[in-house]
Amino acid sequence: MACRLRVDVRQAQRDAGLVGGVEGRLPGGAAPSYDVRSEAPREAETFGTMRSRLETTGLLDIADKLDAGIRLDLDDGTRLFACPDLLAVGWLANREREKRHAGQTFFNHNIRIEATNVCVASCLFCSFARLQPGDDGAYTLSLEEVWDKLRARQHQSITEVHVVNGLHPDLPFDYYLELLRGLKRIRPDVHLKCFTAVEIAFFADLYGRTDEQVLTELMAAGLDSLPGGGAEVFAERVRSKLCHDKCGTERYLDIHRTTHRLGMRSNVTMLYGHIETAEERVDHMLRARALQDETGGFQAFIPLAFHPDNNQMRKLPAPTAADTLRVHAVARLMLDNVPHIKAFWVATGVETAQTALWFGVDDLDGTVQEEQIYHMAGARTPAALTTDDISRLIRVAGREPVERDTLYNVVSMSA
Fold first, then answer.
1. Over the Cα atoms of the chain, what is R_g?
2. Nearest partner of 406 among 366, 374, 373, 372, judged by Cα
3. pTM for the predicted model, two decimal places
4. How far apart are CA 346 and CA 223, in angstroms?
5. Contact in structure between 137 and 321 (CB atoms under 8 Å)
6. pLDDT by residue (tens digit) across 255-272?
């Protein structure tokens, strides 16, 4: 049944003009230029069909704005979420994706480490955190245990270590500094993408430093970039209900602003599929876009699917595959200045992540290898994928695998 579903999705994409296949690509493998006004004989029928379809669904003016290089606004974004024709939204997003990256899809060889799940924050959606060190399921790794996770993979060509933790009230700041130093001693060339803006704010408050002082000290110890976690939804209505006792929106954005000013890159996320509205989703994207206009430091936007198992929001349903595809597609259309839209396959599911490669997504994150936050919330995805696994998933979805490092330098092009 699953295989049949994937075939049907691909056929639907072809019917909608989303997928060109071999016959839809130019000599040399380049993607055709998707302009709804094109009269190129080979593409005229497809574009004519899509132009009529966009007009019927009320999206033709949005396509015209995209063609003219005019930015989409809040009203455009909410209309994209409301449009019943998901494939038309996907077609527009795929067109923007291919303008930037043609068929290339990026991934990296990374490992994820979550050193502690002890956390003073009481986010309703979180299945990972434990409020006290002695609570059932609480853990804190020793520094040697953290370092052993990298030592055990010395034979792997890992380019990134991604560290994210709970907000532990009792660990000294030196724990985090020495964590970074130790990882760099083991692999001096590895990129350390560690600690969300929420963690940076917590460190500053707990240890009596400014956010900038925390970042500067961490950089001196080996920090190379910041992940995007902790953004959740920027709207105050949502944050006040779901995560009232951790770093707020303005501080989150300001920490990323400071991060970029200090010369580091970062990502930005959005937790979707719970109590947020379409308008709040678009507002979130627009706030990220505004900071990107200012600093240019965001590399990727990463929608993160809400998972309801084992947390205080378990009565809510998880987002559907259709909603996941739409969120990624709208993100590509709204965030014209963010280079990459990433589908975190651990959260979306592998099959949906593959399909999202035709809905604006150009990055599948990486090998991950160890991940607990989503799996403790009920994720049924694998704990890890190999680089060969990811390359195959990309290739059979009709895209071109490109292994990258954290800063999107090409490591290898898969044949």
1. 21
2. 366
3. 0.86
4. 24
5. no
6. 999 999 999 999 999 999
